[in-house]
Amino acid sequence: MLVLSRKIGERILIGPDISVTVVRIAGGAVRIGVEAPSDMPVIREELKGQLDRADDRKTRSVNSA
Question: Global pTM?
Answer without folding.
Answer: 0.70
